[in-house]
Specification:
Elements: H1 2-12, H2 22-36, H3 47-56, H4 63-72, H5 80-88, H6 95-110, E1 116-119, E2 129-134, E3 139-145, E4 173-174, E5 179-180, E6 207-211, E7 214-215, H7 219-227, E8 234-241, E9 244-251, E10 258-260, E11 279-283, E12 293-294, H8 298-301, E13 305-309, E14 313-319, H9 322-327, E15 334-341, E16 359-368, E17 374-381, E18 412-417, E19 423-425, H10 427-435, E20 442-445, H11 449-452, E21 458-465, E22 469-475, E23 481-482, E24 485-490, E25 493-495, E26 498-500, E27 516-526, E28 531-542, H12 545-551, H13 563-579, H14 586-599, H15 601-627, H16 632-645, H17 655-673, E29 699-700, E30 718-719, H18 722-737, H19 744-763, H20 769-788, H21 796-803, H22 809-843
Antiparallel strand pairs: 1-2, 2-3, 3-10, 4-5, 5-6, 6-7, 6-8, 8-9, 11-12, 11-17, 13-14, 14-15, 15-16, 16-28, 17-27, 18-19, 18-21, 20-24, 21-22, 21-23, 22-28, 24-27, 25-26, 29-30
Helix pairs in contact: 2-4, 5-6, 13-14, 13-17, 14-20, 15-16, 16-22, 18-19, 18-20
């Protein structure tokens, strides 16, 4: 008991994290500032001298080691220009730190300014997306979905993991000046903040000073401060803009779901994953065995020039370095242009799920300014950092019918070609093949296969699929997209001019959460002075069946073998939800359970009579066992005749279970997959059990459980109370309905059933809360039915009259069996005797 109280206190009052040593941070700042002033250490020595002193000394406080240590600890991030200067070699004289900071520059710069946005999160606006674009590499950094609940005005699809308030994805990061705001999206609480001293809200480049009067010392501390806020909280934020300090007030909201986001490096926090829709140029080859050489690596790492920009459209341009072109036998100028656009919707289409408006625009163009035609290939990466919120409890059905023993993951990759209409690669099998030295590439468009089947290279669409959301790339012209190759892969990163893979968890259960995407290779022959372009529609939406139907993606909702039961149950549940004024989906689930139980009343009463009949026949069955203790065949025949005499069917009590099984499995698949139940509460206004499509998550206990048993194990990171309540009701129901045991065998069977209930509690520990509502309601109904409805009674007089009618059929059959056995024994003896006579005659 004492241990339990300690665990509860530890959960309620967690130990505070060790604060950052301000002195160390200041020292790191001073060291980098000195290096920026001319590469001098604090004592005036050069970088080389400082490095030598560090090697000779014990404390190792040279500029390089301190900066390396502080950046690794996320205390210090240099500003944009400082990082770029270091990368160009204009500041640091040390080649080692220059290369190392170039590697770190992706993390540093991407977390700071120079970002831009299209679309908005205005509640009454006509934008469905807020997209954050990263000119460093010309990629998509973040996609936030702006879909509102018609009654409350809140986000319909919220982040299930983040429980704090949302001020906006402002990309706060540490600089020498303080915690800087990297970007502010239109319509976010930061953008809508008000101040008497400023027009408009918080701006990119502002330095965050305090939140609700508490000083903000670093970006990590700001994140912790935001985590303890709540949606609808009114907060005050003090910022520094130039030399002026400004106080802002704003109201926090829930955090909208991010369909694409920067993937966090869990096993290696320093690892920087590639962002979405990254494009690089390569030298193509017709031989599939030869790799395509990258023309200019700076296209991934350098800032693209923003040539056009408005609220809903951005155009970026990158010109390939002449030296890089010359190295590969190409002429310049060659440039790449990317265009991103968020359509402005009509007011009638904002809430519509039956129109083809759930995509945004993306296209790129490769310009050949040379005086001759050139063959240029490109590599395009798909969406990365897609939602993985359900990975530890979801049981997603694999989308490939032939993959009987394969499992789906949190981020599966799928596609369609003219040769194969639908292809599905589960995240775990992608990881498994990648870890295998002899593993196979999961192709959608296979260059070898395309030799014999040209349709294999003609892609209809490619996408990344999660349990509730889908991001798919469609050619804008509605036709196929002819490629050299396209395949699924683990999303990697870029370090020191090479593409590298991230660390993969050793626990195979965690393979479901690995970030997977696709890559496309295509070669283009571009005429002199011309260009080629490829426009796409990027479908980014929840997996609502009506939305999926508009894009031909119905197959992405895989219900499995019990689809014929899941779909009607979901249709009925949505109808009942509408009839009950949309208060909560708990009510439709309860009504469905009551309807099923009402239809089951005749079967349940027959099961009760069956149990009574079994109890009535127990003495006669015991007598049969005593009469034939060593002959199981005679026991079986006698019992069958006894059951036939009294019209007793041993499996009649199991009929209810067989009938309910399709309902249970259909409801399980339906509740797990239906986007409508995601983020729907058990009881409106109650923070516990706020998602009927997942476990109820009463208490976070990840830090109390070993990893093999917690998040990466069977139980998950949360204690769920509804499955335990369900099993308690099952045990009560079992005790009430099971007749008393009359022999040791029955006692053993009843004990085994009790242990089976405990096993079921473990098996059902992570089932959707909505399914637990079904079980709880069904168990309570069964108990009330037993207590309130008249108990069905056997006609014992008729049974006793049947027992008094002379020899039973069992006895007759036993006598017949005995006679048949005697006759067969006599015949056997006669055959043996005849064989002996023949043998004697043969010897004579």
């Amino acid at each position: 008991m004492a241990m339990l109280m300690m665990l509860i206190l530890q959960w309620v009052f967690p130990a505070p994290k060790k604060p950052v040593d301000a002195g160390d941070a200041d020292a790191a700042v001073a060291q980098l500032a000195d290096s920026a002033d001319g590469g001098q250490s604090p004592d005036g020595a050069s970088d080389d001298d400082s490095s030598d002193q560090a090697q000779d000394g014990d404390d190792g406080t040279d500029s390089e080691s301190i900066v390396r240590e502080r950046i690794n600890e996320s205390i210090l991030y240099p500003s944009d220009q400082e990082i770029l200067d270091v990368v160009k070699g204009e500041v640091a004289e040390s080649a080692e730190i220059n290369a190392w900071l170039r590697q770190r520059s992706l993390t540093s710069v991407r977390q700071m300014g120079n970002l831009t946005t299209i679309g908005s999160l205005y509640e009454s606006g006509t934008d469905r997306y807020l997209i954050t674009l990263n000119p460093l590499g010309g990629t998509v950094r973040r996609i936030e979905l702006n879909v509102r609940d018609a009654r409350t005005g809140h986000y319909k699809y919220r982040d299930l993991i983040w429980k704090g308030g949302y001020i906006g994805s402002i990309e706060a990061h540490d600089t020498l000046e303080g915690v800087r705001v990297g970007v502010v999206g239109p319509g976010t609480p930061a953008d809508l903040a008000t101040s008497a001293d400023s027009d408009g809200g918080i701006k990119a480049g502002d330095i965050l000073l305090s939140l609700n009067g508490e000083s903000i010392t670093n970006a990590e501390e700001f994140g912790r401060m935001m985590a303890v806020t709540h949606p609808e909280d009114d907060i005050t934020v003090k910022v520094k803009r130039g030399e002026t300090e400004i106080d802002f007030s704003t109201t926090l909201t829930h955090k909208p779901i991010e369909l694409v986001r920067p993937e966090p490096g869990v096993l290696d926090p320093t690892f920087v994953y590639d962002e979405s829709f990254q494009l690089t140029l390569r030298v193509p080859t017709d031989d599939p065995r030869k790799p395509w050489t990258e023309i200019d690596a700076d296209i991934r790492e350098s800032q693209w020039e923003i040539t056009k920009s408005d609220d809903n459209n951005v155009e970026m341009r990158f010109e390939v370095a002449p030296a890089a072109l010359k190295k590969h036998g190409l002429k310049g100028p060659v440039a790449v242009v990317k265009r991103f656009g968020v359509p402005v919707l009509d007011e009638a289409d904002v809430d519509s799920v039956s129109t083809r408006t759930w995509h945004w625009d993306f296209d790129f163009e490769i310009e050949n300014g040379a005086d001759t035609a050139q063959d240029i290939g490109y590599e395009l990466k798909g969406p990365t950092g897609t939602p993985s919120e359900t990975w530890w409890y979801s049981q997603k059905t694999h989308g490939r019918a032939s993959a009987l023993f394969s499992v789906a993951g949190a981020r599966d990759v799928l596609g369609s070609t003219e040769y194969r209409n639908y292809q599905f690669w589960g995240c775990p099998e992608i990881v498994s093949e990648a870890l295998d030295d002899n593993g196979q590439t999961q192709f959608f468009a296979d260059p070898y296969e395309a030799v014999e089947n040209p349709g294999a290279s003609k892609v209809n669409w490619l996408g990344v699929d999660t349990l509730y959301f889908n991001i798919t790339m469609f050619p804008d012209n509605g036709e196929t997209f002819d490629v050299f190759s396209a395949f699924a892969e683990i999303n990697g990163g870029y370090r020191n001019g090479q593409t590298v893979a991230p660390k993969i968890p050793k626990n195979t259960r965690e393979h479901k959460a690995v970030d997977c995407t696709f890559r496309v290779f295509k070669a283009e022959t571009i005429a002199a002075g011309n260009s080629v372009s490829q426009p796409f529609d990027i479908f980014s939406a929840p997996k609502d069946p009506d939305i999926l139907e508009q894009y031909g993606l119905e197959q992405t909702r895989a219900f499995g073998w019990f689809w014929w039961c899941s779909k009607p149950l979901l249709w009925l549940m949505h109808l009942l939800y509408w009839l009950t004024l949309g208060i909560t989906y708990t009510i439709p689930i309860i009504i469905i359970t009551v309807l099923v139980r009402c239809l089951m009343i005749p079967f349940s009463r027959r099961a009760a009579l069956n149990a009574q009949m079994m109890q009535y026949l127990q003495p006669q069955m015991k007598a049969i066992k005593e009469k034939f203790p060593d002959d199981m065949q005679k026991q079986a025949v006698a019992q069958q005749e006894l059951f036939k005499k009294h019209n007793y069917k041993p499996l009649g009590g199991c009929l209810m279970g067989f009938i309910q099984l399709p309902v249970f499995l259909g409801l399980y698949r339906g509740l797990s997959l239906d986007i409508a139940l995601r983020d729907q509460p058990l009881i409106p206004g109650l923070s516990w059990c706020s998602n009927l499509s997942g476990p109820d998550q009463l208490m976070y206990w990840k830090h109390l459980m070993p990893s093999w048993l917690g998040e990466a194990g069977w139980f998950g990171p949360y204690l769920n109370i509804l499955p335990l309540a369900t099993m308690v009701l099952f045990l009560v129901q079992q005790k009430m309905f099971t007749p008393p045991a009359v022999d040791e065998q029955q006692k053993m069977m009843q004990k085994m059933m009790s242990f089976m209930m405990l096993f079921m509690a473990i098996m059902f520990f992570k089932v959707p809360a909505g399914l637990c509502v079904y079980f709880v309601t069904s168990s309570i109904w069964a108990i009330l039915e037993k207590k309130l409805l008249p108990k069905p009674e056997l006609d014992t007089a008729k049974l006793e009259a049947a027992d008094d009618k002379g020899p039973s059929l069992a006895e007759k059959s036993m006598a017949l069996l005995g006679r048949n056995k005697t006759s067969s024994d006599d015949a056997a003896r006669e055959k043996i005797e005849m064989r002996r006579k023949r043998n004697r005659k043969f010897k004579k």
